[in-house]
Design brief:
Layout (H helix, E strand, L loop, with lengths): L1 H8 L2 H8 L3 H8 L2 H15 L14 H18 L1 H17 L1 H19 L8 H25 L2 H26 L1
Helix pairs in contact: 1-6, 3-4, 4-6, 5-8, 5-9, 6-7, 6-8, 7-8, 8-9
């Protein structure tokens, strides 16, 4: 419903009807539409894979970690376009009505992503790492929007591979300059 109607158009009545649930139950559980949207966003962001398992590769380079994170996130988006659209709708809704909430969503994504980047064998300064994480998040946002507007999932995965190659090249160059 949120993906189809947008966060503004997805009224609690429409959501309850689609879920085949009593409207009173929805209001009892969530009190209002804002709390429901927050719960949906939290559920979807928990589903979005932003972590990588480095247990077998403790010396993974930052470029390898960035590639794994970006690829996993974009594969999820390609496999779940309705959920991706709903997340973006809720983010845009939050930006319109509660910019602090929207900023909080991004801060949570940023912190989760940076924690995973820090697992890598890294030679970047903190500021370079911060910029790299922000760019990686921007790539997920941009590639997701392109996928949703074009509907071309194959192109999205090819563009993701290109973005990964660019990140690896940049991070390899940054590591050489730091040494």
């Amino acid at each position: 419903m949120i993906a189809r109607e947008g966060a503004d158009g997805a009224t609690t009545r429409k959501i309850a009807d689609e879920a085949k649930a009593p409207l009173a139950s929805l209001h009892y559980c969530f009190q209002n539409k804002e709390n429901l949207l927050l719960a949906v966003f939290e559920q979807l962001s928990d589903e979005l894979p932003v972590g990588v398992d480095l247990s077998e590769d403790r010396k993974a380079s930052l470029g390898q970690v960035a590639e794994r994170l970006l690829t996993r996130a974009m594969r999820w988006c390609v496999e779940h376009p309705v959920r991706t659209r709903a997340m973006l709708e809720i983010l845009l809704w939050a930006e319109r009505y509660d910019p602090e909430l929207s900023a909080g969503f991004y801060k949570a994504f940023y912190n989760r992503s940076e924690d995973h980047f820090r697992q890598a064998d890294m030679t970047l300064s903190d500021e370079e790492l911060h910029s790299t994480v922000r760019v990686a998040i921007a790539l997920v946002d941009g590639l997701s929007l392109q996928m949703l507007t074009s509907g071309d999932k194959g192109r999205t995965l090819r563009d993701t591979a290109t973005a990964c190659a660019m990140l690896r090249a940049f991070l390899g160059e940054a590591a050489r300059n730091a040494a």
